[in-house]
Here is the input.
Amino acid sequence: MPFSDAAAGRSPPPGAAMSAQPPAANAELPAPADRPPAGAAPAPAPAPELTLVIPTFNEAGNIAPLIARLQTALAGLRWEAIFVDDNSPDGTADALREAGRRDSRIRCIRRIGRRGLAGACIEGILAAQAPVAAVMDADLQHDETLLPRMFAAMGDGADVVVATRYAPGGEASSFGALRGFGSRFANGLAHRLLGVRSSDPMSGFFMLRRELVERLAPKLSSEGFKILLDILATAGRDVRVEELTYTFGVRHSGESKLQMRVLVDFAGLILAKATGGAVSLRFLSFAAVGALGLGVHLLALRLGLGFGARFEVAQAVATLVAMTFNFFLNNATTYRDRRLRGWAILPGLAGFYAICGLGAAANVGVAGWMFYQTSRWWVAGVAGACIGAVWNYGVSKALVWREPS
Ligand code: GDD
Ligand code: MN
Here is the structure.
């Protein structure tokens, strides 16, 4: 034990007083004496057959109990666990490194400057070594004793095994009434519109073949919570889905990160998939703001005329008022996630005026052409309005509320 002798303060040999100090012992490196002699290294452990992928954000207090439970529940399997942590401020990654020092099956992918459950799950699955991966919460809400049965169902030929809270026998008593209803309603829609055959496609507890995700990954969304629904909807009808039921527990420690957002996400995905990606939740929001803007326009026009302004003047002022109203409302709702603040609002507003001006020209042009073609005034009017809305949306999305790069 040469290091500990030196550290114990044995006097240095004469003439060596200024020689280098031994390196400070690093608790994470094994002491040389602990290392097996060359040639006697143990055979490498065989690859795991099951990888658990566990997204975490502020779950430090749940790590130790979760790992203890996994070690018990999975005693008969060769497994590994990949935690994907979005740099939680509560030190989740430290807790994981600590756990990994005692059990090398535990690893943590630590992502800096990124957030998002779906993306975390996809990255974890892509990093999995085993051919089968399971996703579960870190908060002990998902019953880990179900894992061996899920794994057996995979062995029986399932492509995806969903641990569901709703099929007979399952229970979601820790759900609020509204959330329970919302989930059931959304599941019905997913079934009808997307052909997703699962009684709980928003479940965060499921197992699948890694290869399925490798194949689908380029098409999956990394935003939001709807990872399983996205996988099932994208995979189409030729995946074999099995379900097992369990009782959804109460969160052990920390707090839930999702409430309404799950449902909004869900509605958005259903809309996008049902319309082949043509209509997004963002576009609907933009169109609703536009409809409100029309009301504002008419109101301003009426007021202007009431004050005795000439029609052209009142119309011009009303147009400006409506565009300004639309800009600020879109900035606060449709584009809340990329909201322009401070001085950035000025060029944004100017750009928005210019884009909407061109949109109005396109609107009138298309409507005129359609009127000439069909001579039905309302068909022409609607066509013009649609072209204008799509133009305004598409161009302002690309130029005013740009996606952060
Ligand atoms: N890496 C990462 N990044 N992990 C996250 C993030 C994030 O941005 N947000 C949440 N998590 C982790 C949490 O730490 C937890 O382990 C898991 O993802 C689920 O988050 P919870 O906050 O526990 O969600 P929940 O219990 O309210 O929601 C459950 O039901 C939803 C459907 O109703 C989960 O099972 C969800 O997966 C499920 O979609
Ligand atoms: Mn949870």
Summary: DSSP finds 13 helices and seven strands in the chain. The longest strand covers residues 50-56.
